[in-house]
Amino acid sequence: MVEVSGDVAFQAMGRDLPPNVMWPYEIEPWKSRASSRALYEDSVAAGGRKSPTGHLFRGYHALQGLLEGIRKAGSTEVPAVIAALEGLSWDSVIGPYTIRPQDHAGVGNLFVGTYATQPEEPYVRLKEMVTVPELSVIETPLPGKEYVV
Fold first, then answer.
1. Which residues lie below 8 Å from residue 136, measured CB to CB, with a gap of 6+?
2. Spatial contact of 89 and 65, defined as CB atoms under 8 Å apart
3. Is 32 exposed, middle or buried (0-12, 13-18, 19+ CB in 10 A)?
4. Position with higher pLDDT, 56 vs 77
5. What is the 3 state secondary structure string of the chain?
6. Taking the model in full, what pTM does it have?
7. Which strand ranges, in their side-by-side order, compose the sheet holding 124-133?
8. pLDDT of 12-70, one tens digit each?
9. ω before 122 within 30° of 0 (cis)?
């Protein structure tokens, strides 16, 4: 299971962050993807935090998908956009991403890192990063069958 808001809480903990905390964070795309760097730089230039939480990238990533669906559909009509989103793939700020047509699950990569405290803001630093293909951890789609926990 991946918890996507840990970085918000961990930045708030500041110097009280426990050692060797693990949580997902899209920090690697900041370094290696031009679109991620541009989003970060534009956000900071617009008055955003120099140490943004992952919500900046996750929110933009979701908006990218919706806009790609609208472009593919050639319409903003909901049924047309839904149909366009099914099976849609695009190069997002966090890497290649696809919406599985069978169950509408988003499939890309997870970024899981080990963090440690540091004395200055944002009080955390990345020690190591592992990329996990979501296809290796996501459930197999079962079209037409209700998901039961």
1. none
2. no
3. exposed
4. 77
5. CCCCCHHHHHHHHHHHCCCCEEEECCHHHHHHCHHHHHHHHHHHHCCCCCCCCCHHHHHHHHHHHHHHHHHHHCCCCHHHHHHHHCCCEEEECCEEEEECCCCCCEECEEEEEEEEECCCCCCEEEEEEEEEEHHHCCCCCCCCCCCCC
6. 0.72
7. 21-24, 109-117, 124-133
8. 777 776 665 544 445 666 677 888 888 888 888 988 777 676 777 778 888 999 999 99
9. yes
133 φ, ψ (degrees, to nearest 5): -65, 125
Name the residue with tokens 């008055």.
Answer: 47
Judge whether 97 and 61 are in contact, CB under 8 Å. Answer: yes
Q: Rounded distance, CA 138 to CA 53, Å?
A: 24
How far lies 112's CA from each of 6, 7, 19, 22, 92, in Å? 11, 12, 15, 7, 18
- Round the CA-based radius of gyration of the chain to a whole number and report it: 17
Q: Which of 15, 134, 17, 121 is nearest to 6 (CA)?
A: 17
Residue with tokens 């541009």: 38
Tell me the C-alpha distance between 17 and 117, whole Å.
6
* Vertex 106: Cα angle to 86 and 63 (nearest 5): 85
